[in-house]
Amino acid sequence: MSLHPQPVPTREELIAVYSKPLPKALGTTCLVFAIIGALAFVIGLFVDPDRAWRAYHFNWLYFTALSSAGVMFVAVQRITTARWSRPIIRFMEGYVAFLPVALLLLLVSVLLGKGHIFPWTHEAPPVPEKVIWFNAGFLTTRVLLSFLVITALSLWYIYTSVRLDVGLLPEAGARWAAGLRARMRAGFRDERRELHSTHSIQGKLAVFLALAFGYGWTILAFDLSMGLSLHFQSTLYGWWFFMGGWLCSLTLFTNLVLAWRRYLHADALIGENHFHDLGKLCFAFTAFWGYLTFGQYLVIWYGNMAEETHWPRLRLIQPWVGLSVTAVLMVFFAPFFGLLSRAAKTFHPTLSLFTVISLVGMWLVRYLEVYPSLYGEAAHTPFGIWEIAIALGYIGLWGLCYLAFMNAFPRVRATLMTSPYRDEVQVPVDPETMEPLPAHE
After folding, report:
1. What is the pTM of this model?
2. Does residue 160 contact residue 205 with C-beta atoms inside 8 Å?
């Protein structure tokens, strides 16, 4: 990533900039959105329960995948020992706050809504192997266990990151979270030792999280998205699914950094080089998502097997073809060509425009993963008030979780930006003896 030199502010300067109180109207807006979504869902259960649950489900896939992928991206910063992102990465660590809520929402859908979402509850799988795979108890157990492991590792990793700053800045955060921060500080040792011990444990956690993310989201993608069509199977589907979440996490992150920088007046700390780097990441993973999409389509096309071709064919005929073409244009073509130049990546309006287009386009992709599989060759596209209102509910709920996290804890990795020992982590030491390790861990 960027080789630009980073400014070294004092701890006091950081706190003065990053601790600006958030407007109450922001939380109120999120709460209103959440209430609208909840009311729409409850009303939908009486008016059109199938549609309400399916809108609930595809929005869960969208918001949960991007939240989990965001935490994975944070862990990648440790795996690569990245320094460029230190002034901004806490803005992405806030994604983790939605994951425990998402776990509860998943529990609700697989226990209470499965008859409206999953075809295996009322339709026999086509082959004996899939009868075993789609056994209700087996599927529910592996789905919940997979996501529980991902959530637990994600929370643990972000806890270690936040604790390092809470230990040195106990007053940085809202009063309502003071007790939580006090418990996090229990056993906190001297700065240098904590810096090295945190770096060491994060190195291990990041690797385990990467394995859990890759395998776990492959299982979740197979069961919660691909499995909505009992006849379809693609070994590339898991990659394609979670890399869509990865792309969303980056495009959302880009807009959050733009908003935080403007609100905090943090121009001296969040530089244009950060936006250039974020633009390059969004561009690169747009290209990668397009590569996976075309690669999956190409294999299905030249294989020409009915159990595979029916899935893309259904999305390329009426009434779904218009949304399918729109989604591809929004997720791949618009951001790929729009962010091709350096100027587009560093000019804030174009950077925001094309990343927002990508975000909305991926929401349509999640819709198209779910609805055509469940509605088939419908007379019209079932898209309207239920899908939009429930999406607003998820936006509000996600925003409430994110704002709670950003209010509760320091909003910046102050220790890794200001500690006199911050660069020692490039050469790991034993956190107990503080002696250099003979080789990289």
Report:
1. 0.95
2. yes
